[in-house]
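Q: Is it fine to ask for two folds in a single conversation?
A: Yes, each is treated on its own. Send the first.
Q: Here.
A: Result:
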Amino acid sequence: MRPAEAHMRTALTGEIDVDAPPGEVYARWRDVEGFPEFVELVESVRRVDDIRSFWTVRLGRTPQTFYADIVDDVPERRICWQSTDGALHSGRVEFAPRDGGTHVALETTWDAPDPFAAIGLPLDLDHDLAQRDLERFKRLVEERNRAAH
């Protein structure tokens, strides 16, 4: 019998204000195939249907793949997702009107196989990663918003 594979859980959070209306911000986030443009860990996303997508991410040196399902979707307000296999991942992003734009709050959790977990070393994810991803997202949305108007 093989020993259980060790896992480490890492939670990442961030918040940012985007100078675009909630509908535009929500629509851009809902376009999962565009995530490699602004999420550092994401190598590719293939949309399977309105709920499911297939992800390839890089956690450390090793690419990981998984399917993720949207488990809660309130247009212009909230999107929640959960992986169904492979790298265990879940997240929630909320959108709120603020000063003519949109406040975006992100929470994600990674629970991935980690060879160092057994000796207590954390999964090597920079805790500023989510904030940097949000800053890239903000630039992307605002640039497209300016170009459209």
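Q: Second one now.
A: Result:
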Amino acid sequence: MKRKSLGRGLDALIPSSEKKTESQVINIDIHNIFPGNHQPRKDFNDQKLNDLVSSVKNNGIIQPILLKHNDSDGTYTIIAGERRWRAATAAGLKSVPAIIKDIADKDLMELALIENIQRQDLNPIEEAEAYKHLMDEHSLTQDSLAERVGKERSTVANYLRLLKLNDKIKCYLLDGRISMGHARVLCGINEEPLQISLADMTVEDLLSVRQLEQIAAGGLTKQKKAKPHSSPSTPSPEILDVEDRLRKSLATKVKLLHNNKSNHGRITIEYYSLDELDRLIDILTK
């Protein structure tokens, strides 16, 4: 199957006459810019924001933010780039580079969602909630939504299923203690107590997705044989310190999972482009 191009929905949202000028970047007074209530991103990690503030102080805003001009009062509403705007404000900048888009209010969230997906700025739950909001707001089917945001229908369906997970499991996903692969397996379990028990087991024993699939396949029979699992403890200050040192050294998000019983663990290092992967390989292989 031919892979869909992310952002095909952008063509439907932006008139052709605007596309000719949309690349024009202008500096906008930071005090005339305000966040919008359509923003799909809800979680602004303090540490990551502080890192961005430091970067902005040294290098300025490299990637322009996207704004909509409000004719009524001359202000601007953020379509995408709220984190960059927050960092610029904290860094004391007087203005930020921006691209102005003339777009209907009803389409703001769709464009914001597409831009955030392209920049990989949303966590899985935010993306799922944004999909749900768009479906409800525009009476879209999963097929039509997938077409508009440039995703496969199965991908959209998998994200929407996350919203049915127990809040505790959602927190595990947001904290990076389970992956999207783990979450998809847990979504296939109808009994919430079993779902939570297997999520706890995954975090406590650092189960791989394959191991979780094998245990989940046994259903309640496996659950009866397994020992009760208490809720996994939060990472110790020592683990958090190691994560912080690695993050600063590698200049990217790092997650360290450690099993106190076996003293085994797993380090997850994130990258967002092939160039960044090459940079990390150079650092790690020196």
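Q: Anything structural to flag on that second result?
A: Two points. Residues 124-138 form the longest helix (15 residues). Strands lie at 26-29, 33-34, 65-69, 76-80, 95-100, 254-259, 264-269.
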